[in-house]
Specification:
Number of strands: 22
Helix content: 40-55%
Mean pLDDT: 86
Number of helices: 22
Shape: globular
Structural class: alpha/beta
Strand content: 15-25%
Largest sheet: 8 strands, mixed
Distance between the termini: 69 Å
Low-confidence stretches: 30-35, 538-543
Length: 585
């Protein structure tokens, strides 16, 4: 009898679960068909740009967005945002833009693209206001494109210059009795520094000082042009820490007024000639995406391939990685598609697996032989990110793009001390070859170290050759600017790693000219999930474990956590990766 009840309740539970899943699938299917209702614009609408929103390279989909009245689920990509602001410039229903200058979640190059399109928007004579409670330097950079900047009278402003923070783990490894066993090629290739030193090496400090000052100089120059304040004054305000309060910012002309939210809304009402009690028609960037198509239409096609995240071997079921097998297929498809007349490759990556980078480079080099190939750099296109780009006909970067870092390294940790001294675990076995027991549970012999170092140097030589061929330079010259050194976009164009300064649209325009196209549309890859089940299983939810962890740990501790995860992926493979994980404040 107990067996009967056990079977009965197990079957009942299975029926209930199956029924609930069926209902969920039906609801999702209906939702995918209905989707969100198209937003209808009214006259005198104000477009709201929230800088705290992280605009990745591509649209981030949420399978449950169809059932929500909120717009957080569907986050447009960076190029979508740029195109929407361009559309708003000529949209008769859009009267102006309000920048909500919260702490900026976007990188410096992404902020550059947004800022430049805002400056172009001003040619329409429509207004742009910026408002903030807490104004960071990166937020201020975008906000400086506005006609007027307003700060909360009780708020705060950051104006202290740029700082790069690096995290070092050598002390932790020493305490855990772990020996990293590091191999690298290039005197500036400092990706392994956090695991072999307690502080920055002189070479790393030199290169970081150069590119950081380059970014800061560009920051000051552009703000000087917008705010009509000379760069020397802006530099002095930061060096002497003069800007401590909102009133200091107003007195020194960094902001145009100290206003609360209700006062700003009243200002906008006056600008729109609305009555005092009349509601302002605000629309967010996310909502504006549903108001009408902002994408170009035409007969011919240009393939736009987004490559964002770490470069890894094989396939990936998650967004945020440039998996070699996935991208080889995507590039091959674009190469063989006769309706595609040119390829634009958008790169935002600090690199990763050297082998994966080589495989992607190979497919791009084949594509270049058949149709124009133009590369656009985002915030970062360094090491493996540069490796996969160097075959292009032309490369575009922003002045504050981080690029270069032509070098490779490998980490093979010796975990013997950790297992033995910390956990009490020891290992023993038999082998048929002298080197068959390599696996990280004993120190490497000198011969083994020599073999690994030779492999690293061989890949470094190959990397330099790829760059020399693609950039039409000698290997000796590439070696002189390589060595793992990091460059800003401004410096990269001077030394020949980049052809032109410009954004993604500039790269697309270049590809269209090379293919002699006037009437074209973009075919974007990786393709979004159109099937409701794909959306449910593979799309990025706004409530992912990663984002929850980021909220719990905070930005700095989360960055350290991500570096540890990267180390796990690095072990045992030669890497072409940016020298370090950094954050600029």
């Amino acid at each position: 009898m107990p067996g009967f009840f056990k079977m009965f309740f197990a079957s009942l539970l299975a029926i209930i679960v199956a029924s609930l899943l069926s209902i969920l699938v039906i609801v999702l299917f209906v939702g995918s068909l209905t989707g969100k209702q198209k937003v209808k614009l009214q006259s005198k609408t104000v477009l709201v740009l929230d800088l705290s929103q992280n605009y990745r390279e591509q649209l981030v989909r949420n399978p449950f967005a169809a059932f929500s009245k909120e717009d957080e689920g569907e986050v447009p990509g960076l190029y979508d945002v740029v195109r929407m602001i361009e559309k708003a410039k000529d949209d008769k229903n859009i009267s102006g833009i309000l920048i909500v200058a919260k702490p900026n979640a976007n990188g410096f190059a992404a902020s550059e693209e947004i800022r430049n399109v805002l400056l172009d928007f001003k040619k329409s004579k429509k207004f742009i206001y910026a408002t903030s409670d807490v104004l960071t330097q990166k937020s201020y950079y975008v906000a400086s494109a506005a006609d007027q900047i307003f700060l909360n009278p009780s708020g705060a402003i950051e104006w202290l210059g740029f700082t790069v923070d690096l995290v070092f783990f050598k002390g932790t490894l020493d305490k855990l009795d772990i020996q990293p066993q590091i191999f690298y090629a290039g005197k500036f290739k400092s990706a392994t520094e956090p695991f072999r030193t307690h502080k920055m090496t002189p070479e790393n400090k030199l290169q970081t000082t150069v590119w950081l000052n380059n970014l800061y100089a560009h920051f000051l120059q552009q703000i000087s042009l917008s705010r009509k304040i000379d760069t020397a004054t802006l530099h002095r305000l930061a060096n002497e820490a003069i800007i401590q309060t909102p009133q200091d910012a107003f007195n020194n002309k960094l902001v145009d007024g100290l206003k609360y939210d209700d006062q700003i809304k009243e200002l906008i009402r006056q600008k729109l000639r609305l009555k005092k009690d009349q509601k302002i028609n605000f629309i967010t960037i996310n909502q504006y995406a549903d108001a009408g198509d902002f994408r170009q239409k035409g007969k011919e096609r240009i393939a736009l391939i987004y490559a964002q995240g770490d470069i890894i071997d094989g396939k990936s079921e998650q967004p945020g990685f440039i998996a070699s097998e996935d991208y080889v297929k995507i590039i091959c498809r674009a190469r063989l598609d006769k309706t595609v007349k040119a390829i634009v490759f958008r790169v935002n990556s600090g690199g990763g697996s050297a082998l994966a980078s080589e495989n992607i480079w190979r497919e791009l080099s084949l594509a270049k032989k058949e149709k124009p190939l133009v590369v656009s750099f985002g915030d970062v296109a360094a090491s493996g990110g540069y490796y996969i780009s160097c075959a292009a006909d032309s490369i575009f970067a922003e002045p504050n793009t981080i690029t270069g870092s032509i070098g490779v390294f490998a980490i093979i940790p010796n975990m013997e001390g950790f297992f033995k001294n910390k956990l009490g675990i020891t290992f023993d076995g038999v082998k048929t070859g002298n080197y068959g027991d390599g696996g990280g549970v004993r120190p490497m012999s000198e011969k083994e170290k020599q073999m690994v170092q030779q492999g690293v140097e061989k890949l470094y030589k190959q990397f330099k050759q790829r760059v020399a061929t693609g950039r039409k330079k000698s290997v000796d010259y590439i070696d002189s600017i390589a060595q793992g050194r990091v460059w800003s976009g401004n410096d990269a164009i001077k030394i020949g790693l980049v052809d032109k300064l410009g954004n993604l649209q500039d790269a697309i325009d270049c590809a269209a000219r090379m293919a002699k196209l006037k009437d074209y549309r973009l075919k974007e890859y990786p393709e979004p999930f159109d099937n409701v089940f794909d959306k449910l299983m593979k799309s990025t939810s706004p409530f992912t474990y990663e984002q929850k962890l980021k909220t719990e740990l905070g930005e700095e501790f989360y960055s350290a956590y991500r570096q540890l995860l990267q180390v796990k992926r690095m072990v045992g493979t030669v890497q072409a990766r940016l020298p370090f994980e950094f954050s600029i404040r």
